Amino acid sequence: MSSGFVTLLYKELLRFWKVSFQTVGAPVLTALLYLMIFSHVLESHVQVNGVPYAAFLIPGLVIMSALQNAFANSSSSLIQSKVTGSVVFVLLPPISYVEFFLAYVVAAMLRGVMVGGGVLAVTMWFAPVTFAAPHWILLFIALGGGIMGTLGMIAGIWADKFDQLAGFQNFLIMPLTMLSGVFYSIHSLPEFWQLVSRFNPVFYIIDGFRFGFFGVSDVPPGISLAVVTATFLLVSAATLALLRSGYKLRS
Amino acid sequence: MPDAMSVAVSISQVEKRFGSLRALAGVSLQIAEGEFFGLLGPNGAGKTTLISCLAGLTRPDAGTLSVMGHDVRSDYREARRRLGVVPQELVFDPFFSVRETLRIQSGYFGIRKNDDWIDEILANLDLTAKADINMRRLSGGMKRRVLVAQALVHKPPVLVLDEPTAGVDVELRQGLWQFIRRLNQDGHTIILTTHYLEEAEALCERIAMLKQGQVVALDTTRNLLARFSGQTLNLRLAGGPASLPAALRARASESEETCSFHLASLDELEPLLATLRAAGCGIDDLRLTQADLEDVFLGVMQESGSAQDAAR
């Protein structure tokens, strides 16, 4: 692989790292506030799968923050460079569309992991978190970040204006992540909504991720892994097809 | 026309439509290695679209383009390594300093440890003192220089400048041209689009004029000027343009205050003045000017306009 990819990845990492107070610090603080408020209100009332509520909530907040920031990374980078015109700097060099895709997605994934790690580091002191199967934790955060980074690319390529991107984020990404079991087990839902949740791929990311901590989950982690991997491959194929066609980038 | 061995840029039958707009209607051009080539035309003539096709930013509907023998589609990596483009818009990445911007741009082309060359470009463009300043804090003229520097990080043999001096002050413009001229003397092929025709006249050896996506003139600057050689006589008549004798009216182009006549040679001057004298027309002011590229440009645009009208 030519080092055009390495530099583009480095640039994407440097871009968010230079404003890490806002891109890493802020989501960590938000997650901490969620934890303090929800666990304070619900701790004495709720246990999920035998796990105290605050402990149950922590992996949910970690992965939710990771997913939202992975999406934010690739989408905001693309829309900013499109709106300012600086996208031309990455379109003129000899970088293939596959390298272009990988650089943005890997950068998004790494920001997701970094934010998730930050959230875990500050929240794990508030409740007894265990690490039953760490490889599942890493696998699901990486794949989840990959899916969201890829969706972020689609949104960033498609949107011409910031408000279109905000629409994508608020009306698709936010509901998908919030209604996927971050704050609850889907077994606590009415049957109809349990069924709806099973069509949400983000549910499988969160469920599989949580299995890595507690060794219990709503569906077997192998099934979650299959769904999440298939989703990642599907959205990746769609994004690669967009990039190959030059849609909105090379008129 | 350059011979096959020394072609830097080859553009063949390139067509591009944006919806119902025919931006390029079968453009063919060959630009030789080491040439200083001008691409002129009114707004919307297709200049930027043509450059975008060459740079791979726009995909043509038909035709082929190559840079130093490498097709811009099928062999895009090699073509892009040989092409530097200074875009028309003043774009920059607000996250980085000048040096970071140039290092990153080098990396995109697969070049690590490019600091010696970056320092040389910075010095040539008078940017050394600004190397560690964030792009956001630079003036418009400075940002323009960084764009030129970015186009040069990978030492491309072909450099395209799309309206590089739009909105740039005179001092910077002069400095920039000195540098570009030196690059050209060192063997770089330069392709320039500009609205400043005196710049094109002073710099370009050969010029293509585009109108409505078609090449309407393609020749050396000298031949183009010779085609519209002669002088223009500008007269301010004591009685205003209305006092011009009927016999001369057909030949004159009138403005509010002056009447202008195109003279193929100075021999035409005396009979014209004699006609005025005979008609008792007083002259307040008289000026003779040489034809310049602006006259050529207007002439070509008019000719092609009437040719296109006739073809309809």
Summarize the structure.
Chain A: Its main location: membrane. Chain A is mostly helical. Chain A has helices at residues 3-17, 20-42, 53-84, 88-91, 97-123, 134-158, 162-178, 191-197, 201-214, 221-245; strands at 47-48, 51-52.
Layout: helices, strands, pairs:
The complex is a heterodimer of chains A (251) and B (312).
Chain A: H1 3-17, H2 20-42, E1 47-48, E2 51-52, H3 53-84, H4 88-91, H5 97-123, H6 134-158, H7 162-178, H8 191-197, H9 201-214, H10 221-245
Antiparallel strand pairs in A: 1-2
Chain B: E1 7-18, E2 21-32, E3 36-40, H1 47-55, E4 62-67, E5 70-71, H2 76-81, E6 83-86, H3 98-108, H4 115-124, H5 140-152, E7 158-162, H6 170-185, E8 189-193, H7 197-203, E9 206-211, E10 214-220, H8 221-227, E11 231-237, H9 246-249, E12 253-254, E13 259-263, H10 269-278, E14 283-290, H11 293-311
Parallel strand pairs in B: 3-8, 3-9, 6-7, 7-8
Antiparallel strand pairs in B: 1-2, 1-4, 4-5, 9-10, 11-13, 11-14, 12-13
Membrane topology (chain A): Multi-pass membrane protein
Protein name (chain A): Transport permease protein
Pfam family, one (chain A): ABC2_membrane
How would you describe this protein?
The complex is a heterodimer of chains A (251) and B (312). Chain A has one domain (3-245). Chain A is 75% helix and 2% strand. The model of chain A has no long low-confidence stretch (mean pLDDT 91). Chain A has ten helices and two strands. With 251 residues, chain A is mostly helical. With 312 residues, chain B is an alpha/beta fold. Chain B has a domain at 230-290: Alpha-Beta Plaits (2-Layer Sandwich), CATH 3.30.70. In chain B, 36% of the residues lie in helices and 28% in strands. Chain B is built from eleven helices and 14 strands. Chain B is elongated and about 80 Å long. Classes of the chains: A mainly alpha (251), B alpha/beta (312). Chain A binds chain B through residues 2-4, 6-8, 10-11, 14-15, 18-19, 81, 84-86, 88-96, 246, 250-251, and chain B through 18, 52, 55-59, 76-78, 80-81, 83, 85, 87, 89, 91-96, 100, 104-110, 112, 150, 154. Chain A: It is found in: Cell inner membrane; Membrane. Chain A: GO terms for molecular function: ABC-type transporter activity; hydrolase activity. Chain A: The chain crosses the membrane at residues 20-38, 50-71, 83-106, 113-131, 137-159, 171-189, 223-243. Chain A: Residues 18-246 form the ABC transmembrane type-2 domain.
